[in-house]
Amino acid sequence: GPAHLFRLAGKCFSFVESTYKYEFCPFHNVTQHEQTFRWNAYSGILGIWHEWEIDNNTFVGMWMREGDSCETKSRQTKVHLVCGKSNKLAYVSEPSTCVYSLTFETPLVCHPHSLLVYPTLTEALQRKWDEAEQLLYDDLITDQGYKKILKEIFEEAGLLKATEENEVEKQSKKITLEFETVEKCSKEYKQLSEEIKKLRVLLSQHGIAYRGNSGEFFSI
């Protein structure tokens, strides 16, 4: 994310509403503590730093996920970053069960360009984004295709967490690319053949039977 926001790392900001104290530790977690004398007063995690929410080339929020269990799911929190005179947790709500919304004010986001995504990317990823823009402009991809490319860019940059399905797909592509040319395939085959010959020699030295491709045993 934006490098200038990293100075918030290692710090925590609290907000008290009614009998609850909320604490937001940027790039770490969000916690809630019930300040009562009840024997079973709640104290737990509302979310752990997970990923950014990005919209229109802008970091619009921080998602803190995988908090304490709540009914059939985990608690999660979205932190909205807004311009303010000082760093402070200004507002907390629970728009839906076990999903919380925090508003964090900071002067670090007051500059118009302070939350732009593009400048935080590497040159290679910026080029990839530029190419996607050109493809969209030339009507060679749809809006949906463009958004998919951007999502891949953000995942590669570590701004978004890749889903398990995407990870499997990436590994599959990686394996496929290893044999994308006949030359590479032939080279791999030759190396494997040499290794098999060495193994046959080793087996023969120890008088071990070798099973061929047909499934027959050969006494070596």
Tell me about this structure.
This protein has helices at residues 123-137, 143-156, 164-178, 182-205; strands at 13-17, 20-25, 29-34, 43-55, 58-65, 69-70, 73-74, 76-83, 88-96, 99-106, 210-211, 217-218. It has 220 residues and is of the alpha+beta class. Among the domains are: 3-106, Mannose-6-phosphate receptor binding domain (Cation-dependent Mannose-6-phosphate Receptor, Chain A); 121-161, no CATH class. The strands form 3 sheets. It has an 8-stranded mixed sheet, with no helix packed on it. A two-stranded antiparallel ribbon has the order 6-7. α1 (123-137) packs antiparallel against α2 (143-156). InterPro entries: DMAP1-bd (IPR010506), Gtb1-like (IPR039794), Man6P_isomerase_rcpt-bd_dom_sf (IPR009011), MRH_dom (IPR044865), OS9-like_dom (IPR012913). It is found in: Golgi apparatus; Secreted.
Number of beta-strand segments: 12
CATH topology of the domain at 3-106: Cation-dependent Mannose-6-phosphate Receptor, Chain A
Fraction in helix: 25-40%
- Uncertain regions spanning at least 5 consecutive residues: 170-180, 214-220
